[in-house]
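To: structure subgroup
Subject: Chain for Friday's discussion

All,

I'm putting the inputs and outputs inline so they're searchable in the archive.
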Amino acid sequence: MKHLKQIGLWLALGTLLLGASDLANAQGRRGRGEERSQENQAAREQRQQERQNRRQEQAQPAQQAQQPQRSEQRRQEQQQNSQERQQRWEQQRQQQQQNGQERQQRWEQQRQQQQQQQRNDQQRQQQVQQSREREDRWQQQRQQQQQNSQERQQRWEQQRQQQQQNRDWEQQRQRQQQQQQQLEQQRRQNADRNRDRDWNGRRDDNNRDRDNNWRQNRNWQQEQQQRAQRYQQDSQRRQNYLYQRQRVLEQQRRLNQLRYQQRYLEQIRRDQSRLQQWRYNDYGPYNYRYRRGSSYYETNRYGAEMLQRAINDGYEEGFYAGQADRQDGYGSSPEEAYGYQDASYGYDAYYVDLGDYQYYFREGFRRGYEDGYYSRSQYGRYSNGSYSILGAILEQILGLQPLN
C-alpha cells in the first residue's frame, strides 16, 4: 500500500509537473514558484506518511498484546451490562406486577363501590316502592273503609226504614184486627140474640137481623175498600224504597240480584194494574180458619185461596232470589232480598190482613231461597214453567181448615 501510494503520488506529481511545465511555459516565473511549493508540500506529506507508518508498525505488537485484555474487559462489561439489563427487566417486571396488582385492587374497589352503590340504589328504590305500596294500600283501605261505612250507613238506613215500615204495617194490621174482632163480636152477639128469641117474634127479629146484616156487610165492604185504598197509596213508598235499593245493588255489583229485583218490580207493576181493574165482590161468610203461630184466624174461601197463593208466590220469588245470590257469589241472606222485605206481591187487600199475607209470603220465600241458593228441591218442585211449594209443606205452614 505504501508503494502504491508512492506510485500514485509520483504519478500525480508527474501529472502536476507536466501541467506545471505547461503553466510555466504559459505563466512564466510565477508558475515555477508554485510548482516548487507544491513539490515541497508533496515531500512533506510523504515524510509525514512514512513517520505514521513507522509508528503504526511499532505500536502493532503492543496492541496485539493488549487485545486479549480488552476482549476480557468487553466480555465482563457485556456480562455486567446483561446482569444490569436482567435486573432492570426484573425490576420492571416486578414494577409491572405491582402496578397490575394495584390496578386490580383499584378496579376491585371500584367494582365493590359500584355494587354497593347499586345495592343502595336498589334499597332506595325498594323503600320508595314499598312506601308507595303502603300509601296505595292505605289509600285503598281508607276508600274501602269509607265505602264500608257508607254501605253500613245505607244498610242501617234501609233497616231503619224497613223497621219503621214494619211498625207501621204492624200497627195497621193490629187496627184492622181490632176492627175485625169488633165486627165478629157484633155478628156473634146478633146471632146469639136471634137464637134466644121465641118463634112468635122471629119475623120481627128476622127483619131487624136483615137490617143489621145489611149494615154490617156495608161496614165490612167499606172497611175492605179503605184497606185497598191504603195499600195502593202505600205502593208508591215501596217503589221508592225499591229504587234506593237498586242503587245499592249497582254499587255492590250484584248484577244477578239486580236483575231479579228488576223482575220483581215489573211484577209489582203488573200487579198494580190488575188491582186497579179489580172490583169488590161478596164471597160469602167466613168458612175457613188458618193457623199463625199458636193462634187461629178466620177467613172466607177467597181469603184462603189468597193465603195459599202467597206461600206459592213467596216460594217462587225466594227461589229466584237465592239463585241470584249464588250466581253473584254472595253469602246466603234471604232477609236482604227485596222480595222478602216487601212480601206484598199478589196481595188484593180483601178478606186478609196485609200482615198475615206477608207472614205466609215470607214463610214460602225462605224455603224457596234455600232451594235456589243450594240448587236443590227440598221444599218445592219445578212444573209447567214455574216453581211451586209442595202441598204437604204448604199445609204444614198454613194449617187451613174448613169450618162446619
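Points worth raising on Friday:
The helical segments are 2-27, 29-196, 202-252, 255-277, 301-328, 338-342, 354-373, 391-398.
Confidence is low (pLDDT under 50) at residues 198-218.

D.
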